[in-house]
Write a structure and sequence with these properties.
Layout: E1 5-6, E2 11-16, E3 22-28, E4 35-37, H1 38-48, E5 65-67, E6 71-72, E7 86-89, E8 94-99, H2 121-128, H3 144-160, E9 164-172, E10 175-176, H4 186-190, H5 199-214, E11 221-228, H6 242-251, E12 256-261, H7 272-275, E13 283-284, E14 287-288, E15 293-299, E16 309-312, E17 318-321, H8 332-354
Antiparallel strand pairs: 1-2, 2-3, 3-8, 4-7, 5-8, 6-7, 9-10, 9-11, 11-15, 12-15, 13-14, 16-17
């Protein structure tokens, strides 16, 4: 089966390419009667969009959502007395579109026959026999905008059940913030360009990202995510365990190379007597235990850098690549809303699945 859909009961199918006409998606399985704040959906997309932080790409996209189906709005039915920016779900597929206004596919003409180091160019061609060379096409992180819209809808379903999902940057390169043990203060996260809750670390992270960009290089980092208010009992053993589905969702995000929940890799150094008394991450046996869920997601440095790199072309010839274009020197600031969105998609799906688990 194609891999463009996430979820079982609450499902998002996304479409589009980085430098195509548009990207978008279809959310299916969202229950009827959910009052949606469309302005809040747009706000979450604004946090991810290119240009949302001065530390990111220079690509300038408005990323305005166009709603195509599945919603009753004030224009469609004035009698419902919905305010502007509000809608009610019909229980039918919710289709949406985000147009690519600042696409520049011609910038990638020189890459038609060249494989970029660290990218999916060669593997994509190995699988399909061809590829979209325009910024990576479907393999570009541009497509995560559709995930953020779907996740924003899922968040509003979760909010009705008292579930909160928030993320923040934990580290950039060797600069590590003070680890917080509670849901981060949203104002402290979104009022700085790094999206970190530790003001002291923000300054050092900013300086590091700017220095790396000046060197024509890139750097990675870690995003921490916190879930509060999730009831016990969510998760579908044995192959759809809650932590397994969260891990899959996170590893589907571009540039993610690691996932850990609870004590994570540190648990491998502990004794059972010690670990049994430690924080389990909010999941036991693949099922939520009612405690706060906390996990970390590791992002690699962006592969496109402004330095000469050695690679090959389709004929196997050695090529020196000097990449051009508009790219993030560090993806973690813009990845925060993506991590939140993918988390919301998984939790909304499991919330609906749990309602059919027993009579």
């Amino acid at each position: 089966m194609p891999g463009n859909t996430i979820g079982h009961l609450f499902r998002l199918t996304s479409f589009g390419e980085s430098h195509g006409a548009a990207i978008g998606g279809v959310v299916d399985g969202c229950p009827a009667g959910l009052e949606l704040d469309l302005d809040a959906v747009q706000c979450e997309l604004d946090r991810r969009r290119p240009g949302s932080t001065p530390l990111g790409t220079a690509r300038d996209e408005a990323d305005r959502v166009e709603w195509l189906s599945g919603l009753i709005t004030p224009v469609i039915d004035p009698a419902l007395r919905l305010r502007s920016g509000q809608a009610i779900t019909l229980g039918t597929p919710i289709a949406f579109l985000i147009r690519n206004a600042d696409a520049k596919p011609s910038e990638y003409d020189a890459l038609k026959d060249v494989y970029r180091p660290g990218h999916a160019d060669k593997t994509w061609e190995d699988k399909y026999g061809l590829r979209d060379h325009r910024g990576g096409g479907r393999s570009s992180a541009r497509t995560t905008a559709a995930s953020v819209v779907g996740g924003a809808i899922a968040r509003q379903l979760l909010t009705r059940e008292g579930v909160q999902v928030h993320a923040c940057v934990l580290s950039v390169g060797e600069v590590i913030a003070k680890r917080i043990t509670d849901v981060p203060d949203l104002e402290s996260v979104w009022n700085n360009a790094v999206r970190c809750a530790d003001p002291e670390a923000v300054l050092r992270m900013t300086e590091l990202i700017e220095r790396v960009r000046a060197e024509g290089d890139s750097i990675g980092g870690v995003v921490s995510c916190f879930v509060r208010g999730l009831p016990a009992g969510l998760g579908e053993p044995v192959f759809d365990k809650l932590d397994a589905d969260l891990a899959k969702a996170m590893l589907s995000i571009n540039a993610v190379k690691g996932f850990q929940i609870g004590m994570g890799f540190h648990a491998s150094t502990m004794r059972g007597s010690e670990h049994n008394k430690s924080f389990q991450g909010g999941v036991l046996g693949g099922i939520s235990n009612g405690e706060e869920i906390h996990f970390d997601v590791a992002f690699k440095p962006p592969s496109t850098i402004a330095q000469a790199q050695q690679t090959t072309d389709r004929s196997g010839n050695a090529v020196t690549l000097e990449a051009k274009g508009r790219h993030d020197p560090c993806v973690v600031p813009r990845a925060v809303p993506i991590v939140e969105a993918m988390t919301c998609l998984v939790l909304a799906d499991h919330l609906l699945r749990q309602r059919s688990a027993r009579v």
